[in-house]
Amino acid sequence: MKKLIILLFVFTLFVGAAVAQDKGDEQVFGKLSVYSDVPDTDIYVDARYIGRDRASMSNISVGKHYVRVVKGEKSLLSGIVDVKEGEETVVVAKVEADSLEESRRKSNYVFFFGGLTDLGYDEAIPGANISYDYKPQLGFGAEVNFNTKIFDSRIDLGFFQNYPAGIVISATQEAQMSVSTPYINISKNIFKNKTVKVNAGGGLNFGIFSPGYRTSITIASRPGYQAFIEATRSGGESHYFVVRLGYVKYAGESAFPGQVTSAGYYLQSGMAYEL
């Protein structure tokens, strides 16, 4: 009988300890809501993107969490909040009137970059189509990025200057020519997380065909187009790193006369700085 009582006592202690441990390990939750007085802001909790302008987390673990509200590359609010069990914790990002008006204006940037362009060269003349192997061109450029409220998009105005590269005419003959261009693009964000944003876009160009060493050719510029996808990563409060991959088609008309097209892919990378 004594042994049975002792066993029951030990069992009760064991079960009680297990239940107490389960209660200690049981996770409790609260609710966190974040609002911003400034439109077009991104909200992060514990470095994880959760929404735009207004966001709520209904089942967030109780305790301290890091909240950050940003617009573009500028931080409007950041700090630690303490979420209570069964309660809603509300955070409102507010700024002074002058700062609010400034924040409503989206930041614009200037982008400096280098690039590699791999094109073909094709010319359609009466009775024949001519294609030449065009070696890759290296170049550099600059563009101004204007963020706009139109479809929440971005407009780019830029110029890309290529160095002359070889066009293989025959086994023993090679011409030199570059294709540079002013251009306009419009793009839109299609993906973002806490470190990277991905944008897609396209636009129009006006290719300038310039002969190089020991090459004499006249090609009048005609409108062309390009399309691209780019990834950006923040480098701080006022600048970010950009890698862009795209397809471009330049057009022109030679003196023969002939319709010239030069199309292919390009890769560009550089830094964008806030204006």
From TrEMBL:
InterPro entries named in the record: PEGA
Domain (PEGA) ranges: 30-91
Domain of life: Bacteria
Signal peptide limits: 1-20
Record key words, sorted: Signal
Name of the molecule in the record: PEGA domain-containing protein
Organism of derivation: candidate division WOR-1 bacterium RIFCSPLOWO2_12_FULL_45_9
